[in-house]
Write a structure and sequence with these properties.
It is a single chain. The chain contains five helices and no strands. The chain has about 200 residues and is an all-alpha fold. Helix 1 packs antiparallel against helix 3 and helix 4 packs antiparallel against helix 5. It is rod-shaped, with a radius of gyration of 37 Å. It starts with 5 loop residues before the first helix and ends in a 13-residue tail after the last helix. About 5% of the residues have low confidence.
Length: about 200
């Protein structure tokens, strides 16, 4: 089963949205500048008297004003689109990643009480679920280890009391302790640990 990379699709949609806005602005500007009579309209100014010298004032040209307003509007639209995309990017990607980084730091510090709220089904949501499951598994490991160690300690204390009172010991007393320790060892061996060469002589 091929997994759809939803995060990649979402990022691609964000960039396509920006590209689409830029292309639309480019097309509009291209057709506007491609008109044959644009240069004549820009350079032409009304002359009140033929004897007067013709001076070109861009602020008095309606064509230049219209073109300037269109450019301002187009770049304004592009700015709005970029702002919307950036807001969506921060809300849907950056903020969830920050929450996962915080949760990982808490786990590293031994705090297993934090749960990540998962609202998406993409790769970020999958990572959030995996971190929540990891936290739950670590809690179960800590609880099992604590219970087993407490039971073993209680059995050792009971054995110590019997030894001090010179009460006859049974085979079950030692077997219970051995069984508890063996269960704890088997539980630790059930994990796939990273094998490292540790020099105990150093």
């Amino acid at each position: 089963m091929i997994m759809t990379h939803r995060l990649e699709i979402r990022l691609l949609n964000y960039f396509l949205l920006i590209a689409l806005a830029a292309i639309m602005i480019g097309i509009e500007f291209f057709f506007e500048m491609g008109q044959d009579d644009l240069k004549q309209r820009i350079c032409s100014t009304p002359v009140q008297n033929i004897s007067e010298s013709i001076t070109l004032n861009p602020d008095e040209s309606p064509t230049l004003t219209t073109l300037r307003n269109k450019i301002v509007i187009m770049f304004g639209v592009l700015t709005i689109v970029v702002a919307i995309v950036m807001t969506m990017f921060i809300k849907n990607i950056t903020m969830p990643l920050q929450k996962m980084a915080d949760a990982a730091r808490y786990i590293n510090e031994g705090d297993l009480s934090h749960v990540i709220e998962v609202n998406t089904q993409d790769e970020i949501g999958m990572v959030g679920k995996a971190i929540n499951e990891l936290t739950s598994n670590l809690q179960e490991c800590a609880s099992f280890t604590c219970i087993t160690a407490t039971e073993t300690l209680n059995k050792i204390n009971a054995l110590e009391i019997k030894l001090k009172s010179k009460t006859e010991l049974s085979d079950n007393d030692l077997k219970d302790i051995q069984l508890s320790l063996q269960t704890l060892i088997e539980f630790a061996d059930s994990f796939q640990l990273l094998h490292t060469d540790i020099n105990t002589n150093a």
